[in-house]
């Protein structure tokens, strides 16, 4: 698939964001077949084409697709519940994908001061919508994760809303519905087929898992959601039976995410050359982490395990 000129032309501007990084998709390296149903029909709402052409998948790839569809990562905060899942390729997730386009466009726009806001947002929306359409078609070689947040008091709010005939706020239809408000997103590629076609420098190995395009909705930042989103990415890498060494980029000037990555076990592999300034980009670290041989265990599960051990010790005493 040819690289989109719009994506290439936007790279210097959008690369200023600490977490977001769009790059052209790589050419497909597997055989594409016509799907059993017509795939050229437009998606509901006229937001673009529907699911792309069918893909010939091996038994292992089919198993990975099932794993993606079943993937759920949950974390309970004192202030609410975060649920992370993979964006599917089917039309059922078209409304969620459109809400995700708005989230990413907003994250990009807030870092750009020189462009006319409205016109730039329209251009971003078009580019990101096409990009997400392409990336959704690369499953199971890559996955777009979407996180939904439900405040701790959402139960009472939902009950009141149901008595009044429903709710019509930002966390409603199009942003997850019963799942809650769309809170965050990230992208994970698992192999060379799903890797970005033009990854930034320092270039990571394309056949290893790579995390990018991480962002958290502005009102929900500084609540620990980014940390749990990173754990969800690592958990999915493990469940997809990908290689255990994971890579990501972090701009040198972004101290907060850099500290988060360091605390999570990521180390600096390589640092950008000072010459990247000539391309109007900020210097970046390429960071890497070797995942353990056991799946990422949620803090809630760990606490329950510790509580059971304490109970056994009391009985023994």
From TrEMBL:
Residues 126-292 form the N-acetyltransferase domain. GO terms for molecular function: acyltransferase activity, transferring groups other than amino-acyl groups. Residues 170-180 have a biased composition (Acidic residues). InterPro entries: Acyl_CoA_acyltransferase, GNAT_dom. Residues 33-44 have a biased composition (Low complexity). Residues 33-55, 155-180 are annotated as: Disordered. This is N-acetyltransferase domain-containing protein.
């Amino acid at each position: 698939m040819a690289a989109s000129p719009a994506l290439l032309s936007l790279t210097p501007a959008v690369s200023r964001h600490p977490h977001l990084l769009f790059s052209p998709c790589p050419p497909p390296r597997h055989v594409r077949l016509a799907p059993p149903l017509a795939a050229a029909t437009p998606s509901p709402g006229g937001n673009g084409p529907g699911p792309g052409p069918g893909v010939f998948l091996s038994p292992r790839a089919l198993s990975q697709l099932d794993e993606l569809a079943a993937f759920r990562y949950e974390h309970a905060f004192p202030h609410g519940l975060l649920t992370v899942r993979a964006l599917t390729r089917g039309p059922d997730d078209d409304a969620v994908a459109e809400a995700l386009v708005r989230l990413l466009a907003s994250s990009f726009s807030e870092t750009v001061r020189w462009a006319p806001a409205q016109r730039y947002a329209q251009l971003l929306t078009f580019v990101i919508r096409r990009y997400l359409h392409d990336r959704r078609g690369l499953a199971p070689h890559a996955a777009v994760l979407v996180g939904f947040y439900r405040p701790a008091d959402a139960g009472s709010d939902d009950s009141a809303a149901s008595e009044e005939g429903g709710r019509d706020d930002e966390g409603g239809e199009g942003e997850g519905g019963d799942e809650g408000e769309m809170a965050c997103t990230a992208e994970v590629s698992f192999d060379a087929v799903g890797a970005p076609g033009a990854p930034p420098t320092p270039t990571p190995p394309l056949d290893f898992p790579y995390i990018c395009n991480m962002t958290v909705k502005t009102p929900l930042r500084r609540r620990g959601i980014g940390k749990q989103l990173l754990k969800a990415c690592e958990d999915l890498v493990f469940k997809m039976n990908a290689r255990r060494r994971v890579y990501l980029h972090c701009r040198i000037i972004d101290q907060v995410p850099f500290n988060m990555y360091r605390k999570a076990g990521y180390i600096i592999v390589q640092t950008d050359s000072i010459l990247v300034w000539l391309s109007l980009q900020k210097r970046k670290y390429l960071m890497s982490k070797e995942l353990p041989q056991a799946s990422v265990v949620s803090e809630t599960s760990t606490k329950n395990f510790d509580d059971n051990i304490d109970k056994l010790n009391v009985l023994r005493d």
